[in-house]
Automatic annotation (TrEMBL):
SUPFAM superfamilies tied to this protein: Methylated DNA-protein cysteine methyltransferase, C-terminal domain (SSF46767)
InterPro entries: MethylDNA_cys_MeTrfase_DNAb, WH-like_DNA-bd_sf
Domain of life: Eukaryota
Designated name of the protein: 17646_t:CDS:1
Organism from which the protein derives: Gigaspora margarita
């Protein structure tokens, strides 16, 4: 539970219009990139996500729409657009 709270706390630091990666959060929370099944997008800049088991739209599509509303855009293959990679990735977490 403590690590989940740390993830939520760190995610709340990500400014609107930026994203982070599973790897960045895993390093910030656990000190290791091997705990990379947390939140946000994959380290290879793909959208990531998993099926919700029903409801309107798939989780990746819901995630894509939410991020698009914040200016985070993905290409047709589901990868963060190249022109956004440097400015959109947040990695400045504080304790």
């Amino acid at each position: 539970m403590e690590n989940s709270l740390n993830v939520y706390r760190l995610c709340s630091q990500i400014p609107k219009g930026q994203v982070s990666t599973y790897k960045c959060l895993a390093i910030a929370v656990y000190g290791s990139p091997h705990y990379s099944r947390l939140v946000v997008i994959n380290s290879n800049f793909s959208l990531g996500g998993f099926a919700t088991g029903g409801g309107k739209g798939s989780w990746p599509e819901v995630k894509r729409k939410k991020l698009a509303s914040e200016g985070i855009l993905f290409n047709d293959r589901g990868y963060l657009r190249n022109d956004l990679r440097e400015k959109a990735i947040f990695n400045d977490f504080s304790d």
